[in-house]
Amino acid sequence: MSRDAPALVAQNLHRSFGSGDEAVHVLCDVSLELDEGQVLLIMGPSGSGKSTLLAVLSGLLRPDQGQVRILGEDLWRMRETDRERFRLRHFGFVFQGFNLFPSLTAGEQLEMVVRWGEGASRRDARRRVGEILERLGLSRRAHLRADRLSGGEKQRVAVGRALLKSPRFCFADEPTGSLDWVHGEQVIELLQSAARERGAALFVVGHDPRLVPYADRVLHLADGRLTDEIPPPATQTPTPGEVPS
Ligand SMILES: Nc1ncnc2c1ncn2[C@@H]1O[C@H](COP(=O)(O)OP(=O)(O)O)[C@@H](O)[C@H]1O
Ligand SMILES: [Mg+2]
C-alpha cells in the first residue's frame, strides 16, 4: 500500500434494520476517509446512526452494501476469524458505558489486556501497565476495584485499556458522554494526544460541541447521510420579553 493512501477509506456504506415497511435506513451512502494520526469527530443527534457507523467501520456490524478498506485490506471481505484477529491487533475501543469488570482492580483490568491478549510475561505487563497508569494519573488508584472508582476514573481506565496495545485505530463512542466536562476534557485530551504521538487514527462520535477543537475534521450525521456542513442550529422560539441574540 502506498504510504500516502488514507489509513481507512469507507465507500458507499448502507445499513438498515428490519425489513419491508418496517425497515429503518440508518446509513445511506456514507463515505469517508481518515489518515493516521488524525482525529475525526462524527456528530449527530441521538438515534442518528453514530454507533451503527462506528460498528460498521470497526468490523463489528456488517454493512448491507459498501466497502471499508483499512490498511489496504477490505475489512468485510476477510474471513471472520481474520477480521477478528485484525480487530484485536489494530483496534482499540472506548465505550460510553466503560465496560469494566467491577470486581477487578484498575491495574488488573489493564494487565489482563497485555497478559491474555498478547501473552506477555507478568513482569512486562506490570511495567507497561505502570507506565500507562502514570500517564492517566491513576498510579495511586491502581489497587482499587472498578466499582470503587469514580466515573472519570473508570473512563480513564477504559481509555488506558484501548491504548495499551498501541492500536492503529481507536474507536470511541461518546467517550465523554457520561462525564462532567472537567473529566470529559481529560479523556478527549488523552485520546487526542495518544493518536498524535502514536500515529493512530481516532474516530470519536458524540454530540458535545466542546469536542470540536480536538478534532482535525468534523462530520455530521443526519437522516442517514454524512456531511461536512454544519447543520443550522435548532430553531428556538424566544421567550416573550427576551431579546434574541
Ligand atoms: N440492532 C438494531 N436493531 C434495530 N434497530 C437498531 C439497531 N441498532 C440501532 N438501531 C436503530 O438505528 C438507529 C440509529 O441507532 P444508533 O446507531 O444507536 O444511533 P446513535 O448512536 O446516533 O444514537 C436508531 O433508530 C436505532 O433504533
Ligand atoms: Mg450511540
TrEMBL record:
Pfam families named in the record: ABC_tran
One GO molecular-function entry: transmembrane transporter activity
Alphabetically ordered keywords of this record: ATP-binding, Nucleotide-binding, Transport
Signal peptide, first to last residue: none
Region (Disordered): 225-245
Domain ABC transporter stretches: 8-243
Bias type Pro residues, positions: 230-245
GO cellular component, one term: plasma membrane
Stated name of the protein: ABC transporter ATP-binding protein
Species of provenance: Singulisphaera sp. Ch08
